[in-house]
Design a protein that fits this description.
The chain folds into three domains: 101 residues, Histone acetyl transferase 1 (HAT1), N-terminal domain (Histone Acetyltransferase, domain 1); 154 residues, Gcn5-related N-acetyltransferase (GNAT) (Aminopeptidase, 3-Layer(aba) Sandwich), CATH 3.40.630; 161 residues, no CATH class. It is 37% helix and 19% strand. The chain has a seven-stranded mixed sheet with strand order 8-7-9-10-11-12-13, sandwiched between helices. α7 links the parallel β12 and β13. α7 crosses α8. It starts with 32 loop residues before the first helix and ends with a helix. It is an enzyme of class 2 (transferase).
Amino acid sequence: MGKKQQHPNADQLPDPKKKRRVGFSGIDAGVEPNECIKIYLVSKKEEVGTSDGFCINPVDLNGFFEEDEKIYGYQGLKITVWVNIISFHSHAEITFQGTSDGGKGITDLKSALEKIFGETLLDNKDDFLQTFSTENNFVSSVVSHGEKLQMKASNGLITNFNGNSEAASSDLEVVRLKMDNLAAGHLYSRLVPLILLLVDGSNPIDVTDPIWELYLLTQKKIDQPENAQHLLLGFAALYRFYHYPNGSRLRLSQILVLPPYQHKGYGSHLVEVLSNVAISEDVYDFTVEEPLDYFQHVRTSFDIKRLLAFEPAQEAIKSAASRLKQGKLSKKAHIPRFLPSLDIVEEVRKTLKINKKQFLQCWEILIYLGLDPIQKHMEDYVTIISNRVKADILGKDSETAGKQVIEVPSVHDEEASFVMFRSQSGEAGSVQMDEDQTKTQEQQLQQLVDERIKEVKLIAEKVSLKHV
């Protein structure tokens, strides 16, 4: 085997032109989906390809992308999705400057988008544009299969639907469909992408379960009486449980007012209709499954207005407010909780279909509204809220009755910073906490009290303004 000929001056520095260089390409850091994806709700084809539609802010797009919840392999990536709110079809346009595998592969964008939009995603833009004309009666056709429950005119007048001319001139309709109706299942399947994008922590309901009910809030366009069309403003999905011996319970699982129509009172109207259904059909109670903070605010505001007009509850509130005004609670050894009597709780459930948990949420706000002037009694009011919060967290005995709250680190959720447990002996002093732990516990409890007081004031102010 021949040897490679060496240069006489082999020991000298090599020729720079022949020097081998090793390069390292940059590692692809990926891009957050929210940074490169924009989603527009559009009602006419002229808005497609522009920014004239309503741009929504999804709660979380990351979960639809597998690799570290990011998008990899693209330079200058932009994804624009248009959703037709007439037929609820969608179309995506994807542009980028180039692709390269920077160690994380190249994300399959089509597959990821299909996880969100499913069969509503149309690849061909012309096919998507045609849906604005070919399916402009889609919502109307679904509505025709449902039961009209209640209508509300633009001036806010609410009437039961009875087919007379006054009701027919109203522009808002609420329609109920059982989920075993094919039209209801068809519409809901097209609404799933918006549910995933806009309702935090949501999962699609089982459209094959006939016990589900779909309530549609629509606006009827009456400018063309011969061909009246319906625009979907929002919807709610409820589950009807059996209640022994021959009754039922209604649970609200999902409710959504489409973003272009939010903050206009449509959500409150839909809640009102659902509450009226619960009363008129004499269900056991009307509950909500894991309500989000904003919806809970709307729901409580509505229930407060009903309770203010409910005489039995008002008598109980006056009594509680009168007792609270009697003295400085913060100086008393034992602080009463000012809870409503079981008779009132039961009367509210039977008449208004407000369950006990929700009524107790409203009760504290009703007491606040009953204190006049509130500034004079605010210290005592804060005391009963603080006492209630401590009792809920630590037990009925404010001295903790052996329960302890200890701060612990969490790698899964930074907000889950403490746990509660009871010592086997049941003695409050059997678990010793150092000064820092005690201070942390007090701060956490005080934060809960402050948040509750803020919430009470916001709802009280909102309700008071509507009663001026």
